[in-house]
Amino acid sequence: MVSASADFDAVVIGAGFSGIYMLKALRDRLGLKVRVYEAGETVGGTWYWNRYPGARCDSEAYVYCFTWDKELLQEWEWSERYPEQPEILRYLEHVAARHDLKRDICFNTRVNSAQFDEASGRWKIRTASGDEVTGRFLITAVGTLSDTNLPSFQGLERFRGKWYHTSRFPRGGVDFTAKRVAVVGTGASAVQAIPEIAQQAKQLTVFQRTPNYCLPARNGKVDPERVAARKADYDAIIERTRNSFAGFELARMAKSALEATPEEREREFERMWDIGGFIFGLGNYQDVLLSREANKIVADYLGDKIRRAVKDPVVAEKLVPKKHPFGTKRTPLDTNYYETFNKDSVLLVDADTDGPVEEITERGIRAGGKEYEFDIIVLATGFDAFTGSLKALNIEGSAGLAMNDAWADGPRTYLGLAVAGFPNLFTITGPQSPSVLANMPVAIEQHVEWIADCIAHMREHGLTTVEAVPTAQDDWVAHVNEVVGGTLLPLGNSWWMSANIPGKPRAFLPYLGPEGIGGYRRRCAEIAAKGYEGFILA
Ligand code: NAP
Predict the structure, then answer these.
(1) What is the pLDDT of residues 219-278, one digit of tens each?
(2) Is the shortest distance between the CB of 436 and ligand 1 below 6 Å?
(3) Which ranges of 99-212 would DSSP assign to H, the alpha helix?
């Protein structure tokens, strides 16, 4: 039963991986009075909302979990290398029950606004159901990919069939049997959903705006001996992932792709291709994201893989990316994605060669001047990443400064953790932090622990407010842009670059540190050790 009291030490918004760990850290480690608000009916966040067919984790399960419950690391048995959405949701439910977290979470409750009251030095938080509470600290745990991108396709309201967005699938699923189905989009969600839907549907038509470089996931059961070895080695695994580039046990080769011979490259590429997963991106030659020439070698290799997997050369050519370098958009992991286009019942409509989606009609979709008829349309069109879910909270800081105004030209943060003008606000995996460029639980745990340590430090020293210094923030924003500017990443029209939402100011949203999450972690620790350099504590 959630406590009725209206004043809290901290209010946390969101009960996914980050919100539930933040609650655990503040309530059970620091003994604070905490209230969590969650729009969904239970914990899970991403893993509660994204239940489209085929939804599963792209990180390997043994590192896609909490590391702070050491017993659970030993006890929990994942069924596959990459577990499906229901299994991850079960895991998070189990964590919530085991640590008695739900009693402090208000479910089915969306936060509508949050205002910092300078007189009391507290945040006033209002919910859609009319609750009003205050908190000394406001901590957003709203996820980077939670605000659904529903493109303003003309005519969606007149479609006579059913339509769904991948991130808002109905509980209990959708029966595609004997149906004519459209999937719009070919990002990571679509790449997982398309092979599953194609198995049921009478006819599946995929509307592609930009083809992606997909890498084989190679999912399956993990050898029990390997599972046991990992369990015995967890402390070292945690150290390695925390100090790695991207939160995995993977590191780039200390060599340029241009220095390797063609035979050596072929051998290395095949090795990584066979292992499957993110190794092809994260364990590749060090200059793949730095040099166009090195990148082209990788892109050509992957293009050939697509041409070999897809029987119809015309379809294969549509699936080969031509406009963006490899790795400049999030690389989906696939299981039978390309092979699905070999089915007679699957059609690919490519924006460049067949014409873009023009409108939704009563009977289906018009693209390239032709009407395609459907019973069901699945929009796999992604998210207003990072800023969408924060902007929806209508946060106002000191002197009535609205975050939506402060960020009109793109987000500005210090470390992706705090925002100048917004005292006592922390943003877990916020914009300009490594977040989605790392394995998320590793990024989340680092933020949660840093925030909890900062609050503990304030308490010990009798301090009540913490706020980012504007110049420290300016320097951070410049650093984020400088680092990414030295790579090929700005060449992709990705959601990382804010390019998927019409009118969104073009800005790189995560932080690609020169040393990744490991370097970022060290930098945050140094800042804390220097008495929270770049913050004003009062
Ligand atoms: P996404 O990567 O943004 O893909 C959206 C797709 O819809 C793209 O193909 C996009 O084309 C297309 N699209 C968007 N607006 C459109 C429009 N107006 N007309 C036509 N096509 C349009 O979204 P997502 O697939 O949901 O994935 C988002 C992120 O979620 C991933 O990158 C990943 O980080 C995460 N994710 C993770 C997992 C996992 O780990 N298990 C699974 C799924 C997703 P363009 O490319 O041209 O913009």
Answers:
(1) 999 999 999 999 999 999 999 999 999 999 999 999 999 999 999 999 999 999 999 999
(2) yes
(3) 188-200
In this structure, which residue's CA is closest to atom 20 in ligand 1? 209
Say how far apart CA 218 and CA 333 lie, in whole Å: 9
Question: Residue 505 phi/psi, 5° resolution?
Answer: -60, 135
- CA 59-63-66 angle, to 5 degrees, is 120
Asked if pLDDT for residue 5 goes beyond 80, the answer is: no
Three-class secondary structure of residue 164 per DSSP: strand
Q: Is the CB of 54 under 6 A from ligand 1?
A: no
Find the 265 Cα to ligand 1 centroid distance in Å: 30
Q: Output the residue whose Cα is nearest ligand 1's atom 15.
A: 381
Structural domain boundaries in the chain = 7-43+101-147+384-537, 184-379
Q: How far is the CA of 190 from the centre of ligand 1 (A)?
A: 7
Residue 536 near residue 467 (C-beta atoms within 8 A): yes
Cα–Cα dist 387/404, whole Å: 9
CB contact burial 439-468 (16+ within 10 A = b; e otherwise): bbbbbbbbbbbbbbbbbeebeeeeeebbbb
Pocket of ligand 1 contains residue 500 by CB under 6 Å: yes
Model confidence pTM above 0.85: yes
pLDDT tens string 161-192: 999 999 999 999 999 999 999 999 999 999 99
Atom of ligand 1 nearest to the CA of 58: 40
Nearest protein CA to atom 33 of ligand 1, as residue: 188
Give me the amino acid identity at 28. Answer: D
DSSP collapsed to 3 states, 209-250: CCCCCCEECCCCCCCHHHHHHHHHCHHHHHHHHHCCCCCCCC
Specify whether the CB–CB gap between 185 and 211 falls below 8 A: no
Q: Are 124 and 117 in contact (CB under 8 A)?
A: yes
Q: For residue 93, how far is its CA from the centre of ligand 1 (angstroms)?
A: 27
Q: Give the count of beta carbons closer than 10 Å to the beta carbon of residue 42.
A: 15
Fold for 7-43+101-147+384-537, please state it: FAD/NAD(P)-binding domain (3.50.50)
CA 118 – CA 122 distance, rounded (Å): 7
Ligand 1 and 145: CB distance under 6 A = yes
Tokens 């009407």 locate to 371
Bridge pairing between strands 122-127 and 346-350: unpaired
Find the 28 Cα to ligand 1 centroid distance in Å.
Answer: 37
Q: What letters, b where the CB count within 10 A reaches 16 and e where it falls short, cover 48-72?
A: bbbbbbbbbbbbbbbbbbbbbbeeb
- Other CB atoms within a 10 A radius of the CB of residue 285 amount to 24
